[in-house]
Amino acid sequence: MSPDAKDKEQLKSRRPANTAFKQQRLKAWQPILTPKSVLPAFIIIGILFAPLGGLLLWASDTVAEIVIDYTNCDKAGTNYVQVPSDLFSSNFPGSSGDGNPPEFKAIPAVGTFNNATWPTMRCTIKFDVPVTMKHPVFMYYRLTDFYQNHRRYIKSLDLKQLAGEPRTAMELRGGGCEPMATVTEGELRFPIYPCGLIANSIFNDTLDITLSPFNSPDLKPYNMTDKGIAWTVDQTKYLPQQHPDLSQIRPPPNWEKKYPNGYTTSNPPIDISKDEHFQVWMRASGLPNFRKMYAKNEKEDLPAGTYTIDIDMNYNMTVNGGTKSVVLSTVSFMGGRNPFLGIAYIVVGVLCFFLGLLFTARHLYKPRRLGDHTYLSWNQNQSPQHQRNDTDASGGAGSETEPEDLPTATASGASARY
Amino acid sequence: MLTGDKRETAINIGYSCRLIKDYSSTIILDVPTQAQAHKAMNKAMKDVMKGKSRHVVVVIDGATLGIVEQSTELMALFVELGIRADSVICCRVSPAQKALVVKTVRARCKNTVTLAIGDGANDIAMIQEANVGIGITGKEGLQAARSSDYSIAQFRFLERLLFVHGRWSYVRVSKFVLGTFYKCATFYLTQGLFQIFTGFSGTSLYEQWTLSFYNTLFSSLPVMVVGMFEQDLKASTLLLVPELYTFGPRNSGFSLVTYGTWMAAAVYQAIASLMVPLWIAGAIGKFGVEPDDESLFPMGLGVYTTIVLVVTFKIAYLETHNWSIVTHITSFLTILAWFGYNTAYSFFYPVRTGGYHVRGAFQSLAAHLPFWLTIVVASMIAILPNIMAKIIKAQLYPSDVDLYQELEKDPEAVQRWKEWEVELGNQGAEAEGVTGSKIQRRLSIAASIVSKHSSRRAPSLSSRRGRSKSQQALDANRNDSFLAVGRHSQDARRESFGEGQDQVGDLWGPGSHRRGASSASQMARDRPSRTNSGGPRDAKESGPWSATQLHFPRPFPVPADSDLSVSSTTPLQLGVRRSSSAGHVYGRGMV
User: What is the DSSP string of B69-126?
Assistant: First the structure.
């Protein structure tokens, strides 16, 4: 090899490659926010969103729904009294009115569960359905001010126990289920099944899932089912305990109405894989006001008429100042009734449109020429006659009045510039 | 300039690199004792503060500096004088003295950043003392480069290093830091705000692993891309308009106000991202309309998705100017990662969990149209005010960067700049050393272009309305007066000598523009012939320094064409050294 070539070979250049990436010449889109480009976008957004919001609002209005707050039903007396207007809301699309306001009454009754009985108040709510509610029809119970999303509450369960593993008191003690983990009787400790605050506080009002027609002989009772109300995933989550020793486990304290003698062979613990109300409840809600499904009917419509529903009021909500309500609702292609989505779109659309118009108007009135030199920071602080509004030669160079000024201008000691 | 050469050499080099200009007044400090140094510097300071000279250069040699540095008071006085002067030349200084000068300047000007550049081993001390030390590799070896913060191969690369890469680096780091704080603030504020709905018990809205991955998987790429690839202005623009460099010293990229603006955006967007989905879910209001599954995880999904979209868009697109393929890829990857992660989660998360019911959640949510509609409207509500605020600010209170970004899009301006660059390129090395500073060169080129384009005087960038006749006349005047600036500096020797002190001294005052305007067109015609001439360096002419003789009364008359010798009997000499080798371009670092 000739000496030159050898030299060249040994002298490897450390110069970076001349590629667009390494020399920072990547092709790039460098847009600027000018009124001409952005304001039309705002107006277009406005034109798109507002009608969409209108559509969503309309869709939400097609959902028939009635919500009745029955927290204080037990004080209503044995004759029907009208539910106060702030305690119910209803929306029946396509009807001239919402029918008569609901009424409720409460009579003492006896609640039963597997041979256990206890006195309770049975609330009967009479409500109007002015138009046929198309299937599927869902029944929910709605609680307010019930903080299922409290940090300690939401962790308060034992996954193994719910998966069917037997758990002893020692294992549960000090775990996540505290303080609802074990029960002390004398000197003995017994594990609670199912342990935890969530299970303990389960909603135990009994809503009658058959709606009985009131004074309408040609209407049949409307049966709803409480199967299929839980998420399918939940049904694989919970497994019952196989052959538990009933003398060794105790029901949660709040369940004593249903289990006055604890768990016995005639009154065994619930099969958590089949009790969908339990599963629905265990899925702790993220907000303090929530509704949980109680029953549904996916096949038959609910014909118009007046119906009654019986509710056994076992659940004490006055302790925490919350309310409980019963909800009957249909769905639209967008889901349940939700006017807020439509309202949000309309608000955004209208605001965008008007802001776009407003700013366009201002821009047309007093536009700033793009690249106007008078706004450059080094053209400020001059007497007006030095302002340059329109100079060709100064193209992009800015002012030339103070060429020597800048490099030293920022030194803190610099002063007495000429 | 700190050099080890002797005074004449240093001053000659000062001339050739335009540290000393034709019209500069030079103050030479050459005193043997402290008392005399005190007197000389006080007098120099008084003269400088009188403000009669347009350009002041202080020259001090190593021996004098040695005397001065013995007293802190004198050193402080020297630094004050140096700060007020336009240039300072220290000749015959030792490496230790170089470092001392830099150190004293740093101590005196605490809020400034000092930069030292050198190519020899004797510059090492100075390079290490300054905030930014730059070493030039090459003729004198690699010692300076090794001990420096940055090393470049030629002095002229300094321009690009500072104006382009330094500025881009500052912009990138600022946006990176601001973006990082912003994205975290937005995200975690939603957690904090959610506590309003949990009774302030500390429940997390998001599932634990999803929460932890926010910083790494779902928001790191966009902000890193900004920190690496952002270019707020093109390199050619930055080199052509040195004034844009003030962006850095003015802390325009990162200050308390900028930080506050980003944090305000974070607060607003956190509120919007959380409250809009929750409001739509009926969290707020008496008769809510809660969805079927309002357990924690699905709710958190809606909010989290909104945040990922909003934060990615803001950091990668709204707050940056350079949308390259890398930007698009990383933003796409981020959002893909988010939805991919959730899909995987939905299929593979353990069924048995408490609190966050992840399994199957995203699948059912994604099939539910209101989920997407909620995300869209929440993102819009979060980001549209930001966009609106940016437009309003850019229109009403545009910054220099905004204006030049707009100009970069204007084909006429770009065309002009290209012409300038060509002219600058044509002028080449000679121009750099001889005809003056970059700005002066720009003026001369601009003049020639103006004369070319004078027929095309119609406003290129502005609207044609609103220009009254008188305003147009004024504009015409201003056009020419702009040229007069360059003219004055070149013609100071011609005009001011005859017309007297007040014209030159009055250059920046109110009268000069109008006075200069009359012969500006003449100058435009003369321009091409003069651009490449030797100019004031021509020894035969009376020289520009004669202009300065008017400003600085000399203790005794000195013939204009004789060299002033160093060994003159007067301890303090005011005056400008004239180069005997006019037009000579020195090789020391000058190209």
Answer: TTSHHHHHHHHHHHHHSSEEEEES--HHHHHHHHHHHHHH-TTS--EEEE-SGGGHHH
Cβ–Cβ below 8 Å for B249 and A413? no
Q: What average pLDDT does this structure show over A224-230? A: 88
- Closest to A211 measured CA to CA, from A261, A138, A149, A263: A138
**Contact indicator for B95, B123 with CB cutoff of 8 Å:** yes
DSSP A369-403: PTT-GGGSGGG-SS-GGG--S--STTTTT---S-T
**B552 inside 8 A of chain A by CB:** no
Beta bridge partners of B30: none
Please name the residue of chain B whose CA is at the shortest distance from the CA of residue A289. Answer: B283
Beta-carbon contacts of B371 under 8 Å, excluding residues fewer than 6 positions away, are B301, B302, B365
Q: Name the minimum distance, in Å, from the CA of B569 to any CA of chain A.
A: 31
Separation in Å, CA A117 to CA B428, B480, B589: 105, 105, 103
Asked whether the CA dihedral B233, B235, B241, B244 is positive or negative, the reply is: positive
Choose the mutation target among A19, A21, A29, A30 for the interface with B, i.e. most B CBs under 10 Å: A30
- Please give the average pLDDT of every successive group of 10 residues along chain B, which has 591 residues: 92 92 90 91 90 90 92 92 92 93 92 90 92 88 89 92 95 96 96 93 93 94 94 92 91 94 97 92 55 76 95 95 95 96 93 84 85 93 93 88 91 88 66 46 56 43 40 41 31 35 31 35 37 35 29 35 35 34 29 28
What is d(CA A73, CA A126) in angstroms, rounded to the nearest whole number? 12
Chain A residue with Cα closest to B327? A28
Name the residue among B238, B231, B98, B213 with its Cα closest to residue B162: B238
Specify whether the CB–CB gap between A349 and A52 falls below 8 A.
yes
Nearest CB to B370: which of A157, A335, A348?
Answer: A335
Q: Looking at the complex, does the CB of residue B163 fall below 8 Å from at least one CB of chain A?
A: no
Q: What is the ipTM of this complex?
A: 0.85
> What count of CB pairs under 8 Å joins A to B?
331
Restricting to B residues 134-153, those with a Cβ less than 8 Å away from any Cβ of A are none
Query: How crowded is residue B558: how many other Cβ atoms within 10 Å of its Cβ?
Result: 14
Instruction: List, for residues A305-334, the tens digit of each pLDDT value.
Output: 999 999 999 998 887 789 999 999 998 877
**Whole-angstrom Cα distance, residue B526 to residue B529?**
6
CA distance B248 to B240: 17
* A12-21, A243-252, B235-244, B575-584: range with lowest mean pLDDT: B575-584
The single-letter code of the amino acid at B129 is E
B469 touches chain A (CB under 8 A): no
DSSP, res B380: H
Helix B369-396 vs helix B296-313: angle between axes, to the nearest 10 degrees? 30
Distance CA(B454)–CA(A392), nearest Å, equals: 9
pLDDT category of residue A396 using cuts at 50, 70 and 90: very low
CB contact under 8 A, A378 and B370: no
Under 8 Å CB-to-CB from B206, ≥6 apart: which residues?
A: B191, B300, B304
Q: Six-digit token pair at A251?
A: 């029901």
Q: What's the sign of the alpha-carbon dihedral B138, B140, B141, B143?
A: negative
CB contact, 8 Å: A364 with chain B? no
A286, B467: Cβ pair inside 8 Å?
no
Q: Does B460 touch chain A (CB under 8 A)?
A: yes
Task: With beta carbons under 8 A apart, name residues in chain A contacting B508.
Answer: 401-402, 418
> What confidence category does residue A369 fall into, taking pLDDT thresholds of 50, 70 and 90?
confident
Helices (H), B230-366: 235-240, 256-280, 296-313, 325-348, 361-366
Structure tokens at B415: 């065309």
Report how far residue A173's alpha carbon sits from residue A153's, in angstroms, rounded to the nearest whole number: 16
